[in-house]
């Protein structure tokens, strides 16, 4: 993994790059650090990302996925109305995720962009599928499906009903492409409004829905993060993003465990995998779910001490990475969710001291259990030689 950082005017970009067989994957984290109005900060960030790509000879069309982390979605929604059109005009078809999770830095907006730079030009294609919330990226024998901004669309204000509806939407969308939630979905993100009140309904709805598609503790679940996050519409209390892969063979998707450090989630009534991996012929993708300071009994460790919680969180992450044959040196990006904004300076100093090179965004987003002060998720890419599977 190669790391790079650059400051362009008031925008700081940190990036990772992994390349095999002339196909590079980049994760860019862009954060604004100025006092401009929201629209000005957004223009600066998008301009900085475009300039970064140009400086490295990467076509704009290589951008596959973007997530916008906002400080105040409801009040910024009007100015955001053109984001999808703008991103499409600059990057071509691209998955766009938008969520209110204020950046812990001073800016109003931060962006994560995922880029596939195919040096074998012409071997990658992107198209927006039905429903319009799906972007399909095809290369080789695989279809990479990014589903974003899934909301229930019904009138219920209950998190249980909305969560069931968004999983139904995702499942139907995959089935319409000849795939299934159970066999093809690798990663989900659940953004929950007022998580302390609404998370239990999401947990119950997900468990019941998974049972209808034969996903139980003795089969497998999906890597996931369930975290505070808001939509512009105050009636939306559950927002879902997902990543799925079509064309995978049996055994290509693995499920990570670290029983000496973390217990299975079903032991405390939650239905997600601690992490998943996807083996390709020339590399392995590793998706670590939202991970916090927890021990092998499911107990919260180091209450009220954010530094010790970070230490334990990264011990857990390293144990999961090790199960996939990887380490922190393979991590391409991290998102750090922080419950108490007064801890942001401490957390940023910790990351700068211990993981300075790894692209990250720190957001203000309460974790699903009040005792946890911080939660971390990450994506890693490692070298691999799997002749049984097609290259990425």
From TrEMBL:
Gene Ontology, cellular component aspect: cytosol
CDD domains: YjgF_YER057c_UK114_like_5
Organism superkingdom: Bacteria
Single GO MF descriptor: deaminase activity
Signal peptide: none
Pfam families xrefs: Ribonuc_L-PSP
PANTHER family: 2-IMINOBUTANOATE/2-IMINOPROPANOATE DEAMINASE RIDA (PTHR11803), 2-IMINOBUTANOATE_2-IMINOPROPANOATE DEAMINASE (PTHR11803:SF39)
Protein name stated in the entry: Endoribonuclease L-PSP
């Amino acid at each position: 993994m190669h790391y790079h950082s650059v400051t362009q005017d008031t925008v700081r970009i940190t990036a990772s790059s992994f390349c095999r067989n002339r196909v590079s994957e980049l994760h860019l984290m862009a954060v604004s650090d100025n006092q401009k109005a929201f629209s000005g900060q957004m223009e600066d960030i998008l301009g900085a990302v475009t300039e970064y790509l140009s400086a490295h000879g990467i076509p704009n069309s290589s951008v596959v996925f973007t997530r916008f982390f906002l400080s105040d979605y409801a009040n910024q929604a009007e100015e955001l109305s053109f984001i999808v059109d703008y991103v499409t005009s600059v990057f071509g078809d691209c998955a766009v995720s938008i969520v209110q999770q204020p950046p812990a830095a001073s800016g109003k907006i931060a962006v994560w962009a995922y880029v596939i730079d195919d040096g074998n030009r012409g071997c990658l294609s992107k198209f927006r599928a039905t429903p319009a919330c799906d972007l399909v990226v095809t290369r080789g024998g695989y279809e990479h499906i990014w589903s974003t901004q899934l909301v229930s669309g019904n009138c219920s204000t209950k998190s249980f009903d909305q969560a069931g509806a968004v999983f139904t939407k995702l499942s139907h969308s995959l089935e319409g492409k000849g795939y299934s939630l159970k066999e093809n979905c690798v990663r989900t993100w659940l953004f929950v409004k007022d998580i302390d009140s609404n998370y239990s309904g999401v947990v119950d709805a997900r468990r019941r829905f998974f049972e209808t598609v034969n996903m139980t503790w003795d089969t497998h679940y999906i890597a996931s993060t369930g975290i505070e996050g808001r939509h512009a519409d105050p009636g939306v209390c559950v927002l879902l993003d997902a990543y799925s892969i079509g064309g995978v063979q049996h055994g290509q998707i693995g499920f990570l465990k670290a029983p000496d450090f973390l217990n299975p989630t079903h032991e405390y009534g939650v239905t997600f995998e601690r992490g998943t991996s996807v083996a390709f012929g020339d590399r392995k993708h590793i998706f670590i779910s939202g991970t916090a300071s927890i021990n092998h009994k499911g107990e919260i460790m180091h209450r009220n001490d954010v530094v010790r919680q970070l230490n334990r969180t990264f011990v857990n992450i390293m144990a999961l990475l090790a199960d996939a044959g990887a380490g922190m040196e393979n991590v391409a990006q991290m998102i750090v969710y922080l419950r108490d904004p007064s801890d942001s300076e401490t957390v940023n100093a910790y990351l700068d001291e211990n993981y300075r090179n790894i692209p990250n965004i720190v957001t203000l987003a309460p974790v699903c259990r009040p005792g946890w002060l911080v939660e971390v998720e990450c994506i890693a890419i490692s070298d691999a030689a799997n002749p049984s599977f097609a290259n990425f």
